[in-house]
Amino acid sequence: MSSPVIYAIVVLIWGTTWYAIKFQLGVVAPEISLVYRFGIAAVCVFAYARFAGSPMRLSWRDHRFVALQGLTLFCLNYWMTYLSTQFLTSGLVAVLFTSIILLNLINARLFFGVPVEARVLLAAATGALGVALLFLPELQAAMGDRTIIHGALLALGATYLASLGNMAALRNTRSGMSVVTANAYGMAYGTVGLALIAAIRGTPVDFDPSWPYVVSLLYLSLAGTSLAFGLYLVLIRRIGPSRAAYTSVLFPVVALLVSTLFEGYRWSFPSIIGLAVLVAGNALALGGRAKQVAN
User: Fold this and answer.
1) pTM (two decimals)
2) Contact 108, 293 (CB under 8 A)
3) pLDDT tens, residue by residue, 88-128
4) Angle formed by the axes of helices 118-134 and 269-286, to 10°?
5) H-helix or E-strand containing 98?
6) What is the spatial distance between Cα 243 and Cα 241, in angstroms, rounded to a whole number?
7) Phi-psi region of 71 (alpha: psi -120 to 50; beta: other; left: phi over 0)
8) First to last CA, the chain
9) What long-range pairs does 179-182 form, CB within 8 A, spacing at least 24?
């Protein structure tokens, strides 16, 4: 399979997972749905790791950092994302998530001393303007509806946690740990963390046998988590992490198109300009030689 085909598949899968999350909400609590999702995904990635011959033994120190990766990237991040989707359209949640590109650059500077170029600061300002334009109708509506602000804060908090998870993943890969092994254990730790959240909150263990819930769960577990991430690893190996990270710029466009078709999202002139500005800002941030940490 050629790299452009793999690239397109990754963008299409990750661009549609945001809408699939909608079908996970309602009957089953978000943390329980996520236990199912990452439990299934962890089993699949462990099976692949065994098949690929990835080393599975880790030191206790490595386990601690893998647990940190799992709790931030595969637990709290997704839990808050699911919660935010209760208040915002899936496309807008996806757009807010693109801020991870700039957050990764900032956190890489704080934790690893990676220099931040002036171009990145310009990209940050451009991205902020794009989000403001894209959210202009929602911001106006938010004057009388605090749930929109609540959803946006949840989405941004989830994105920051995902960025911290990327920093843990960067540490793990820099230490020589297999990416597949780290993510297999990370998903397992994330599943345990989500189960603990459910236990602390006293969340009942439910299951929705309806076909929308089951199909979306399988899609998110097998395609959105296991398959897409595996294909993304292939992209990183073939074209490098910086070029592969452009998927983060493109999948919100797919998410907004899906949201337009199925959720009634209405485009305005400011939102169209805002999306263009946001994509331009993210592309500017991803350009050059600055190291990127892909999610």
Assistant:
1) 0.84
2) yes
3) 877 778 888 888 878 888 888 899 887 877 877 787 788 77
4) 160
5) none
6) 6
7) alpha
8) 22
9) 179/233, 180/45, 180/48, 180/49, 180/52, 180/54, 180/233, 181/49, 181/54, 181/55, 181/56, 181/58, 182/66, 182/69
Place of tokens 């799992």: 70
pLDDT digits (tens, 9 = 90+) for 124-169: 788 778 877 877 776 676 666 788 889 999 999 999 999 999 899 8
Helix axes 179-201, 228-239, angle to 10 degrees: 150
Q: What are 289's two structure tokens?
A: 């030689």
CA dihedral for 283, 285, 287, 291, sign (positive or negative) = negative
Tokens 């030191």: give the residue. 59
Q: Which two tokens stand for residue 88?
A: 């915002």
Is residue 271 within 8 A of residue 134, CB to CB? The reply is: yes
Count CA within 13 A, CB hemisphere, residue 289. Answer: 1
